[in-house]
Amino acid sequence: MAILTPRLLRPKLILLISRAFSSPTIVDSLKPSLPLQLHGHTNTKRSIQWVFLGCPGVGKGTYASRLSSLLGVPHIATGDLVREQLSTSTPLSKQLSEIVNQGKLLSDEIIIGLLSTRLEAGEAKGESGFILDGFPRTIKQAEILEDVTEIDLVINLKLREDVIVEKCLGRRICSQCGGNFNVASIDIKGENGTPGICMAPLLPPSDCESKLITRADDTEEVIKERIRIYNIKSLPVEEFYRSRGNLLEFNLPGGIPESWPKLLQALNLDDHDEKQTAAA
Ligand SMILES: [Zn+2]
Protein backbone atom coordinates (compact mmCIF):
# COMPACT_ATOMS: atom_id res chain seq x y z
CA MET A 1 0.00 0.00 0.00
CA ALA A 2 1.33 3.40 -0.93
CA ILE A 3 1.35 6.14 1.66
CA LEU A 4 -1.68 8.29 1.00
CA THR A 5 -1.21 11.97 0.38
CA PRO A 6 -2.92 14.49 2.69
CA ARG A 7 -5.29 15.40 -0.12
CA LEU A 8 -6.56 11.84 -0.21
CA LEU A 9 -6.58 11.42 3.53
CA ARG A 10 -8.37 14.56 4.43
CA PRO A 11 -11.82 13.71 2.99
CA LYS A 12 -11.53 10.27 4.59
CA LEU A 13 -10.90 11.78 8.00
CA ILE A 14 -13.72 14.31 7.48
CA LEU A 15 -16.09 11.50 6.64
CA LEU A 16 -15.06 9.51 9.68
CA ILE A 17 -15.29 12.32 12.11
CA SER A 18 -18.54 13.70 10.73
CA ARG A 19 -20.01 10.22 11.20
CA ALA A 20 -18.72 10.18 14.75
CA PHE A 21 -20.65 13.41 15.38
CA SER A 22 -24.00 11.75 14.76
CA SER A 23 -23.38 9.08 17.39
CA PRO A 24 -25.72 9.62 20.35
CA THR A 25 -23.50 8.41 23.19
CA ILE A 26 -22.42 11.27 25.38
CA VAL A 27 -21.64 11.82 28.99
CA ASP A 28 -24.55 14.21 29.50
CA SER A 29 -23.63 15.19 33.01
CA LEU A 30 -20.17 16.09 31.82
CA LYS A 31 -20.85 18.63 29.10
CA PRO A 32 -22.27 21.56 31.08
CA SER A 33 -19.55 21.27 33.68
CA LEU A 34 -16.55 21.38 31.37
CA PRO A 35 -13.93 23.65 32.84
CA LEU A 36 -13.71 25.93 29.85
CA GLN A 37 -16.23 27.70 27.71
CA LEU A 38 -15.97 25.71 24.53
CA HIS A 39 -17.06 27.30 21.37
CA GLY A 40 -20.62 26.72 20.47
CA HIS A 41 -21.08 22.97 20.61
CA THR A 42 -22.11 22.43 24.21
CA ASN A 43 -25.46 21.03 23.14
CA THR A 44 -24.10 18.72 20.49
CA LYS A 45 -24.85 15.12 21.34
CA ARG A 46 -21.51 13.50 20.98
CA SER A 47 -18.72 12.15 23.13
CA ILE A 48 -15.77 14.17 24.31
CA GLN A 49 -12.97 14.92 21.86
CA TRP A 50 -9.92 15.69 23.92
CA VAL A 51 -6.20 15.97 23.29
CA PHE A 52 -3.41 15.29 25.77
CA LEU A 53 -0.15 17.19 25.42
CA GLY A 54 2.91 16.62 27.52
CA CYS A 55 6.58 15.85 27.44
CA PRO A 56 7.76 12.26 26.88
CA GLY A 57 7.94 10.68 30.34
CA VAL A 58 5.42 13.02 31.97
CA GLY A 59 2.90 10.18 32.23
CA LYS A 60 0.27 11.43 29.80
CA GLY A 61 -0.40 7.89 28.59
CA THR A 62 -1.31 6.88 32.15
CA TYR A 63 -3.76 9.75 32.70
CA ALA A 64 -5.20 9.58 29.18
CA SER A 65 -5.82 5.88 29.61
CA ARG A 66 -7.47 6.34 33.05
CA LEU A 67 -9.76 9.05 31.68
CA SER A 68 -10.58 6.91 28.69
CA SER A 69 -11.82 4.07 30.96
CA LEU A 70 -13.69 6.54 33.16
CA LEU A 71 -15.47 8.25 30.28
CA GLY A 72 -15.84 5.26 27.97
CA VAL A 73 -14.05 6.79 25.00
CA PRO A 74 -11.06 5.33 23.19
CA HIS A 75 -7.55 6.40 24.17
CA ILE A 76 -5.71 6.72 20.88
CA ALA A 77 -1.94 7.02 21.24
CA THR A 78 -0.12 7.56 17.97
CA GLY A 79 2.97 5.88 19.47
CA ASP A 80 0.91 2.69 19.93
CA LEU A 81 -0.40 2.95 16.37
CA VAL A 82 3.17 3.13 15.05
CA ARG A 83 4.29 0.19 17.22
CA GLU A 84 1.29 -1.90 16.13
CA GLN A 85 2.01 -1.15 12.50
CA LEU A 86 5.71 -2.02 12.93
CA SER A 87 4.76 -5.42 14.36
CA THR A 88 2.94 -6.38 11.16
CA SER A 89 4.61 -7.43 7.91
CA THR A 90 2.84 -5.06 5.54
CA PRO A 91 4.64 -2.89 2.96
CA LEU A 92 3.70 0.13 5.12
CA SER A 93 5.41 -1.47 8.10
CA LYS A 94 8.58 -1.95 6.02
CA GLN A 95 8.47 1.69 4.97
CA LEU A 96 7.94 2.83 8.59
CA SER A 97 10.77 0.74 9.99
CA GLU A 98 13.18 2.17 7.38
CA ILE A 99 12.31 5.70 8.49
CA VAL A 100 12.43 4.87 12.19
CA ASN A 101 15.72 2.95 11.86
CA GLN A 102 17.32 5.98 10.25
CA GLY A 103 16.32 7.95 13.33
CA LYS A 104 13.99 10.15 11.29
CA LEU A 105 10.59 11.40 12.36
CA LEU A 106 7.50 10.07 10.65
CA SER A 107 5.83 12.62 8.41
CA ASP A 108 2.50 14.25 9.22
CA GLU A 109 1.00 12.32 6.28
CA ILE A 110 2.01 8.95 7.72
CA ILE A 111 0.78 9.78 11.22
CA ILE A 112 -2.54 11.12 9.91
CA GLY A 113 -2.91 8.03 7.74
CA LEU A 114 -2.47 5.76 10.78
CA LEU A 115 -4.84 7.89 12.84
CA SER A 116 -7.57 7.93 10.22
CA THR A 117 -7.32 4.15 9.78
CA ARG A 118 -7.61 3.75 13.56
CA LEU A 119 -10.63 6.07 13.78
CA GLU A 120 -12.29 4.23 10.92
CA ALA A 121 -11.79 0.86 12.59
CA GLY A 122 -13.13 2.23 15.89
CA GLU A 123 -16.10 3.82 14.22
CA ALA A 124 -16.96 0.48 12.60
CA LYS A 125 -17.04 -1.00 16.12
CA GLY A 126 -19.38 1.76 17.33
CA GLU A 127 -16.81 3.91 19.14
CA SER A 128 -17.55 7.58 19.67
CA GLY A 129 -15.31 10.41 20.82
CA PHE A 130 -11.61 10.10 21.61
CA ILE A 131 -8.72 11.10 23.78
CA LEU A 132 -5.71 11.67 21.55
CA ASP A 133 -2.24 11.15 22.99
CA GLY A 134 0.81 12.10 20.94
CA PHE A 135 -1.23 13.95 18.32
CA PRO A 136 -1.15 16.70 17.16
CA ARG A 137 2.59 17.12 17.55
CA THR A 138 3.07 19.87 14.96
CA ILE A 139 1.16 22.99 13.94
CA LYS A 140 0.40 21.37 10.60
CA GLN A 141 -1.19 18.38 12.35
CA ALA A 142 -3.18 20.71 14.62
CA GLU A 143 -4.45 22.62 11.59
CA ILE A 144 -5.51 19.46 9.79
CA LEU A 145 -7.28 18.25 12.92
CA GLU A 146 -9.04 21.60 13.29
CA ASP A 147 -10.20 21.41 9.68
CA VAL A 148 -11.91 18.09 10.20
CA THR A 149 -13.30 18.17 13.72
CA GLU A 150 -13.69 20.19 16.85
CA ILE A 151 -11.42 19.60 19.79
CA ASP A 152 -13.23 20.37 23.05
CA LEU A 153 -10.29 20.48 25.36
CA VAL A 154 -6.52 20.20 25.26
CA ILE A 155 -4.95 19.11 28.52
CA ASN A 156 -1.31 20.12 28.80
CA LEU A 157 0.35 17.99 31.48
CA LYS A 158 3.40 19.50 33.07
CA LEU A 159 6.01 18.25 35.49
CA ARG A 160 9.34 19.71 36.62
CA GLU A 161 12.09 18.71 34.24
CA ASP A 162 14.39 17.36 36.96
CA VAL A 163 11.56 15.09 38.10
CA ILE A 164 10.86 13.84 34.57
CA VAL A 165 14.54 13.00 34.13
CA GLU A 166 14.66 11.16 37.45
CA LYS A 167 11.44 9.29 36.63
CA CYS A 168 12.69 8.22 33.21
CA LEU A 169 16.01 7.07 34.70
CA GLY A 170 14.02 4.90 37.13
CA ARG A 171 12.04 3.06 34.43
CA ARG A 172 12.52 -0.70 34.37
CA ILE A 173 10.98 -3.40 32.25
CA CYS A 174 10.75 -7.06 33.27
CA SER A 175 12.56 -9.02 30.57
CA GLN A 176 10.34 -12.02 31.24
CA CYS A 177 6.76 -10.73 31.60
CA GLY A 178 7.18 -7.31 29.99
CA GLY A 179 5.82 -5.52 33.09
CA ASN A 180 6.64 -1.82 33.48
CA PHE A 181 8.04 -0.61 36.80
CA ASN A 182 9.79 2.42 38.22
CA VAL A 183 12.45 2.27 40.89
CA ALA A 184 12.80 6.06 41.27
CA SER A 185 11.74 7.34 44.66
CA ILE A 186 11.27 11.07 44.30
CA ASP A 187 11.11 13.30 47.35
CA ILE A 188 11.94 16.91 46.62
CA LYS A 189 11.37 19.41 49.41
CA GLY A 190 9.54 22.62 48.60
CA GLU A 191 11.59 25.82 48.70
CA ASN A 192 11.13 29.55 47.97
CA GLY A 193 7.41 29.13 47.40
CA THR A 194 7.81 26.21 44.97
CA PRO A 195 5.89 23.21 46.27
CA GLY A 196 7.81 20.02 46.94
CA ILE A 197 7.05 16.87 45.05
CA CYS A 198 6.85 13.24 46.14
CA MET A 199 6.50 10.26 43.86
CA ALA A 200 6.59 6.74 45.19
CA PRO A 201 8.39 4.08 43.18
CA LEU A 202 6.39 1.40 41.40
CA LEU A 203 8.34 -1.63 42.54
CA PRO A 204 8.13 -5.02 40.81
CA PRO A 205 6.90 -8.20 42.52
CA SER A 206 9.75 -10.39 43.78
CA ASP A 207 9.44 -12.73 40.77
CA CYS A 208 10.43 -9.92 38.41
CA GLU A 209 13.12 -8.32 40.58
CA SER A 210 16.09 -10.15 39.12
CA LYS A 211 14.87 -9.77 35.52
CA LEU A 212 14.63 -6.01 35.30
CA ILE A 213 16.15 -4.23 32.33
CA THR A 214 16.50 -0.56 31.39
CA ARG A 215 15.51 0.79 27.99
CA ALA A 216 18.64 1.54 25.97
CA ASP A 217 17.43 5.09 25.27
CA ASP A 218 16.77 5.94 28.93
CA THR A 219 20.12 7.59 29.55
CA GLU A 220 20.29 11.06 31.07
CA GLU A 221 21.71 12.54 27.88
CA VAL A 222 19.02 11.02 25.62
CA ILE A 223 16.20 11.90 28.03
CA LYS A 224 17.31 15.54 28.22
CA GLU A 225 17.62 15.72 24.44
CA ARG A 226 14.09 14.26 24.05
CA ILE A 227 12.76 16.94 26.41
CA ARG A 228 14.66 19.71 24.62
CA ILE A 229 13.29 18.70 21.21
CA TYR A 230 9.80 18.24 22.62
CA ASN A 231 9.81 21.72 24.14
CA ILE A 232 10.88 23.37 20.89
CA LYS A 233 8.24 21.52 18.86
CA SER A 234 5.37 21.68 21.32
CA LEU A 235 5.43 25.39 22.15
CA PRO A 236 3.76 26.45 18.88
CA VAL A 237 1.15 23.68 19.31
CA GLU A 238 0.41 24.85 22.87
CA GLU A 239 0.14 28.43 21.61
CA PHE A 240 -2.21 27.29 18.82
CA TYR A 241 -4.67 25.92 21.38
CA ARG A 242 -4.07 28.68 23.94
CA SER A 243 -5.12 31.26 21.35
CA ARG A 244 -8.33 29.31 20.78
CA GLY A 245 -9.06 29.30 24.49
CA ASN A 246 -9.20 25.55 24.99
CA LEU A 247 -5.85 24.78 26.58
CA LEU A 248 -5.97 23.55 30.16
CA GLU A 249 -2.56 23.71 31.84
CA PHE A 250 -2.20 21.09 34.54
CA ASN A 251 0.87 20.90 36.76
CA LEU A 252 1.20 17.38 38.13
CA PRO A 253 1.51 17.73 41.91
CA GLY A 254 3.10 14.29 42.39
CA GLY A 255 2.44 10.67 41.53
CA ILE A 256 -0.90 9.12 40.58
CA PRO A 257 -2.40 9.16 44.13
CA GLU A 258 -1.92 12.95 44.41
CA SER A 259 -2.44 13.86 40.76
CA TRP A 260 -5.48 11.80 39.74
CA PRO A 261 -8.01 13.39 42.15
CA LYS A 262 -6.68 16.88 41.36
CA LEU A 263 -6.93 16.25 37.64
CA LEU A 264 -10.53 15.06 38.02
CA GLN A 265 -11.26 18.22 40.01
CA ALA A 266 -9.72 20.41 37.31
CA LEU A 267 -11.94 18.65 34.76
CA ASN A 268 -15.04 18.88 36.97
CA LEU A 269 -15.16 15.10 36.93
CA ASP A 270 -14.75 14.42 40.66
CA ASP A 271 -18.43 13.41 41.01
CA HIS A 272 -18.07 11.18 38.00
CA ASP A 273 -15.28 9.21 39.62
CA GLU A 274 -17.23 8.74 42.86
CA LYS A 275 -20.22 7.38 40.93
CA GLN A 276 -17.95 5.02 39.01
CA THR A 277 -16.25 3.83 42.16
CA ALA A 278 -19.62 3.31 43.87
CA ALA A 279 -20.90 1.35 40.87
CA ALA A 280 -17.78 -0.80 40.69
ZN1 LIG B 1 8.11 -10.07 35.35
UniProtKB/TrEMBL annotation:
One Pfam entry name: ADK
Keywords associated with the record: Kinase, Nucleotide-binding, Transferase
Enzyme Commission number: 2.7.4.3
Cited PROSITE patterns: ADENYLATE_KINASE (PS00113)
Keyword Protease: no
CDD domains, alphabetized: ADK (cd01428)
Catalytic activity: AMP + ATP = 2 ADP
Keyword Lipoprotein carried by entry: no
Record-annotated membrane-spanning stretches: none
InterPro entries on file: Adenyl_kin_sub, Adenylat/UMP-CMP_kin, Adenylat_kinase_CS, P-loop_NTPase
GO MF annotation list: AMP kinase activity; ATP binding
PANTHER family linked: NUCLEOTIDE KINASE (PTHR23359)
NCBIfam families noted in UniProt: adk
Family: Belongs to the adenylate kinase family.
Protein name per the record: adenylate kinase
